[in-house]
Each structure stands twice: as C-alpha cells, then as structure tokens.
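Example record

Each entry pairs one chain with its bound ligand, 1,5-anhydro-D-fructose.
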Amino acid sequence: MATFRTVVVGTGFIGPVHVEALRRAGVQVDGIVGSTPAKSRAACERLGLPTEFGTFEEALADPSIDCIHLATPNRLHFDQAKAVLRAGKHVVCEKPLAMNSTESGELVRLAKQSGRAAAVAYNIRFYPLCHEAAARVRNDTLGNLLHVTGSYVQDWLLKETDFNWRVLAADGGELRAVADIGTHWLDLIQFITGRHITSVCADLRTVHPTRQRPTGSVETYSGGANSDDGPTAAASEPVEIATEDCGAILLRFAGGANGCLWVSQTTAGKKNCLRYELAGAKQSLAWNSESPNRLEIGSRDQPNECMVRDPALMDASAAAISSYPGGHNEGFPDTFKQLFRCFYGSIAKGEVSGPAPYPTFQEGHREILLCEAILKSHREQRWVDVAGEDGAG
Ligand SMILES: NC(=O)C1=CN([C@@H]2O[C@H](COP(=O)(O)OP(=O)(O)OC[C@H]3O[C@@H](n4cnc5c(N)ncnc54)[C@H](OP(=O)(O)O)[C@@H]3O)[C@@H](O)[C@H]2O)C=CC1
Ligand SMILES: O=C1CO[C@H](CO)[C@@H](O)[C@@H]1O
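Structure tokens for the complex follow.
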C-alpha cells in the first residue's frame, strides 16, 4: 500500500484504538493529539509515537500529513472535519458525524468538493460475518426480506452516579443512546440489507432525569463497579438530563420489510451487545456482537446451522476482511483495522470519487437524518418519514 501519514485527535477511549488499528493495518501514525499539548505528549509517550504535534491545529498545518482521524466528543466533529477537508486532507470521523443534519449535510458537500476521502467510523460493518450476512442477502439466500429485529444494549450508564459527556445534549447531541449506539445498528442493518429505512415510530425514555456529575473529568467506560459510593459520590453535583437512556423504534424499510430496534445504556450485565435477526422468506440470519465469530442460519424445513467465521468458507467479500484462519477469533479491535485497510486501500487505488467500500460522510449524514426523524417521532408520538438526503422531507 502507498505510504500515508496520519494523526489521530482524541486521547480518550477510542483515539488509542485508532492508533493501534492503523499500525496493524500498516498505516504510518505520526502522532496523537488531545485537548492540551501536555495531554498530547503524555499520550504519544504512552503509545510510543513521535511527539512532533501538540495540538490539532499543528497537525492540520502540516502539509505532509495526509489524513486526520477525529476521535473527539461529538460536538467537535463538525468544525474539526470541516477544517481537515479545507486543509486538503482525507478524514476519518467518529460517529455520529455531527450534531444535526445542517452540519452533516454541509460536511457531505464539502467532502464532495474537496475530492478527499471522508469516512465515518461505523466499524461494526467490518466484522467479517456481517459482510457475510450482506453477501447472503445480495445473493438472495434468504429470499424476500420480511422483517429485521434487534437491539444494542449496554450497562455502563445504569446508575444515577454514572456520568459522561454523552449524557449532555450540548456535548453529545439531543439524542444520546440512539445516536451513540443505535446508529451503529441502523448503519449496519442498512448496509447488510442494502435497503434504506424510510419511516420510524419511536418511544424513548430517560431513566435518570437527574445524574450526579463528578467535579473532575470522566473517560468513557470509567464507571466501574463502585461508582455509586466512594470518591465519585463525594465530589459530584446534580445535573438535569434531557437525553434518553433507552427506547424502542419501529422501522419500515424501502421494499416493504419492517422491523424494530431496542436501544439501552441501562441494561445490567450487558456490556456492549448488538444483536440482529434478519428474517427472509427462505432463511433467517442471527448475529450477536458478543460472539462475533458465529452466524446462526435458521431454516424451517431443515436443521438450523451455525457458521463459524472462516475465510476458507465465507463469501469473498467477508474473507477479504478476515486476517486469521477459522478458530482464531477476531473482535472489536480487528474491525477498526479492517475498516482502515479498506479506507486507505481504496484511496491508494484512486477510488475517491466513486462508490466507496467503507461508510462515507453521505451515510453518516443519513444516520443523522434518521436520528432527527426518531426524535421527532418520539416527541410527536407518531410515525415520521426520514427526510431525503438533500435535507428535503
Ligand atoms: N466507533 C466506535 O466504536 C466508538 C466511537 N466512539 C466515538 O468516538 C468519539 C470519542 O469518544 P470517546 O473516545 O469514548 O470519548 P473520550 O471522552 O474517552 O475521549 C475524547 C477525547 O477527546 C479529547 N478532546 C476534547 N476536546 C479536544 C480538542 N479540542 N482537541 C483534541 N482533543 C480533544 C478529550 O480530551 P480531554 O479528556 O482532555 O477532554 C479526550 O481525550 C465520540 O464521537 C464517540 O461517539 C467512541 C467509542 C467507540
Ligand atoms: O461502539 C461503541 C461502544 O460504546 C461506546 C459508548 O457507548 C460508543 O460510543 C461506541 O460507538
């Protein structure tokens, strides 16, 4: 692959995951930057990276940097992605792409004008068995798609004392659980089925209308088992929360299938669990991110099967994003590696303006439009059509 020089922005939970995955994908990482030069230096030293860049702006100003990865809180994505594209660089932005569809629509236009590649890190597509499921839908193995159901549930925000910037609408956006984890499911299912979701009917709920905010800073998933006693409770203040902890969304797909999604960040014992079941007229497929190397294939008139991830047995598209033989499990960090291999491989082949094999800003924008339809549906307690991608309803 051609040599690319990259910098990652954000030193919290997922920024270092990007660094590790880029290195494993064979892409050069020239630094990681945080909110202050001191935090940038500390993260670079921890990860064994050069300490040349202290801030996002310094990385932006260096013409030899080809691509910047944005792993910062949601409220920063729009300005930072805009700045990266205007600096003439490729960009990988974490999800959700922006805080609203005005922002995400502008990013789509800017990305097109710039001639640079622009991806949103919907990494879950890059579990090989999710590509296998997409191939089986494409090849009509399932038959006519009837319905799609599933959930994405976690427990790290279960307690009133659990806190993170995501719970504040000003930092994460008006929708929280749906935007943070629900959009992974919605992106994945639209990728697998090749169909857009056209209408939604949502019922959302804030379990904790007040949370205790620690007076210090909090990193993602840092709650742990003791977060409702001890130092956190001693140094905290009550904050009103308007974003949802959980909710149900009924779905209608183009072409007639329907379905539903349950999203929750308050399900005890579920650490990070995405499930789906696709039901076709001939077969069904079921997958769970907590055992990602197994795909259940359901039949009515013959025994059910369980496909174990194995590049020798999967569709070529799934084998292409699988680096290890069957039985050698691949997981969460591998999805980022495969996404980045795909992104940089595509740029190296000069595919920037054609259809992309990774989630683009256009698809990130679509997720934001879906979020807006879901919020409107919840507020108005009725079905809402998802706006067209030009922003028109
Ligand atoms: N695709 C996936 O699987 C995942 C995606 N995400 C997404 O990634 C993004 C980051 O989430 P996460 O890592 O969990 O969040 P964290 O809070 O753990 O990390 C965010 C980081 O961004 C830094 N930061 C804040 N402001 C700036 C700035 N102006 N310039 C540079 N760095 C800054 C923070 O620094 P400081 O601590 O000093 O404020 C912190 O290091 C979110 O959009 C989230 O939705 C997150 C997890 C998984
Ligand atoms: O995949 C993910 C795992 O959980 C994180 C915290 O809710 C999400 O932000 C992220 O997208």
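Residues 128-330 form a domain with the Dihydrodipicolinate Reductase; domain 2 fold (CATH 3.30.360.10).
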